[in-house]
Amino acid sequence: MNNVAVIGGGASGLVAAISAASKGARVTIYESGARVGKKILSTGNGRCNMTNMNASAEHYHGADVGFVRGAREKFWVGDTLGFFLSLGVMTKTEPDGRVYPYSDKASSVLDALRLKLDALGVRTVTSYEVKSVKRKNNRFIIIPYRGESETADAVIVATGGRAAPDLGSKGGGYDILKGFGHTITDTRPSLVQIKTETETVKKLKGIKITAEASIDGASEYGEILFTDYGLSGIAIFSLTAYLGKQKTVSLDVMSGTSREELTAMLTERARLMSDVPLESYFTGMLDKRVGQALLKTAGITPLSRPSRTITKAETERLAAVMKKWEFKIEGTMSWNNAQTTKGGALTSEFDKNTMESKIVSGLYASGEVLDIDGDCGGYNLQWAWSSGYIAGMNAALRKENKQ
Ligand SMILES: Cc1cc2nc3c(=O)[nH]c(=O)nc-3n(C[C@H](O)[C@H](O)[C@H](O)COP(=O)(O)OP(=O)(O)OC[C@H]3O[C@@H](n4cnc5c(N)ncnc54)[C@H](O)[C@@H]3O)c2cc1C
């Protein structure tokens, strides 16, 4: 019987362990935290957005995004839903394709995984932070910071990346993989809030709008939240998956309306609201404070002026700002606020069909530790489940293949 060590008891590691044990391996999960699956409980605001029915390759990023193809062919959304159903987890799909447990409780996903781990006799060692893994006489030695070393025939590194270190993953898995000669690309927070110049956003703190947010090369339509440090909300989170060296983020607050149409609309509005002071010009169309900020950005002041005084040139300027309201990017919030890691272990050094290292036979990696990150909407957990399942199955079958 193959002895499989799974390092990291997160989404990917738990599924890897179930997959390996289901194929007959003797499995141990080594988890640095006091319990497994802590991050799962925080996903989807406690509801766990498990996957997305639209999980195509365009929703993933990395130096070689084609690496996801292996998982898509072997164990993807349908297989994942079937897997969870076999564990008793019923799901429901929202109109945008996001899938949640029917219970609306992330805890029920974790409970179901734990019940299965128990049923399969998987050993779980908690408060065991793995420092390094060595290869000796065709076996792996798992070396912790504290406690006794253990051995295994195959190792799955499922330690996550650097996002949300309070929930467990601090990037230790990168060192384990580096120890075997693997390359780790630059990492940075993704699915995170954007810090911008604060003069405008600070005054709008707490206001949510629906708009199209764009950076050079990508746009996302959805909720935007103004904060005292910059911009947040689902559209902004999703946009950071594409964030590189861009200097500005812009908002189109009238997405779907052309600049010409908007100019005509604003001209008619000035006629309808002729005696209304500019400070209330947007009442009934946009949030009042957002409207006032747009007028100021377009240089249309004082706001005490009656709306009929807006000139043609001012109307055109206002329409231009509403279609492209620019904010200078000053970075992102920190790892503590990020949902995932951009970058990680270089995927070209792994086999996409098995998740096995091309450098060290018997070594596997799955989930966020690899250089694959998804958009906001269930795509990251899908990658964690899929890559974990495939790694677990192949680690378990490995020895048998060799005999
Ligand atoms: C607040 C929040 C909400 C999110 N919501 C969603 C969502 O709704 N849908 C979605 O698709 N994605 C969501 N994500 C992203 C998703 O949770 C992660 O991409 C996914 O959990 C990654 O799984 P993983 O198993 O690779 O890593 P992790 O879940 O990070 O698990 C890694 C585990 O390894 C352990 N570990 C780390 N280093 C060591 C070591 N050296 N020794 C032993 N153990 C170690 C950690 O303690 C941790 O338990 C969210 C993320 C956050 C932070």
What characteristics describe this protein?
403 residues, alpha+beta, FAD/NAD(P)-binding domain, Elongation Factor Tu (Ef-tu), domain 3, 2 domains, 6-stranded antiparallel β-barrel, 5-stranded parallel sheet, 12 helices, 21 strands, binds flavin-adenine dinucleotide
Describe the overall structure:
There is one protein chain. With 403 residues, the chain is an alpha+beta fold. The chain has two domains: 3-188 and 341-402, FAD/NAD(P)-binding domain (3-Layer(bba) Sandwich), CATH 3.50.50.60; 194-332, Elongation Factor Tu (Ef-tu), domain 3 (Beta Barrel), CATH 2.40.30.10. Helices cover 31% and strands 23% of the residues. It has twelve helices and 21 strands. The structure holds flavin-adenine dinucleotide.
Strand order of the largest sheet: 13-16-15-14-17-18
How many strand units?
Answer: 21
> Which fold name is given in CATH as the topology of the largest domain?
FAD/NAD(P)-binding domain
Radius of gyration: 25 Å
CATH superfamily caption of the largest domain: FAD/NAD(P)-binding domain
| Number of spatially distinct domains | 2
Oligomer: single chain
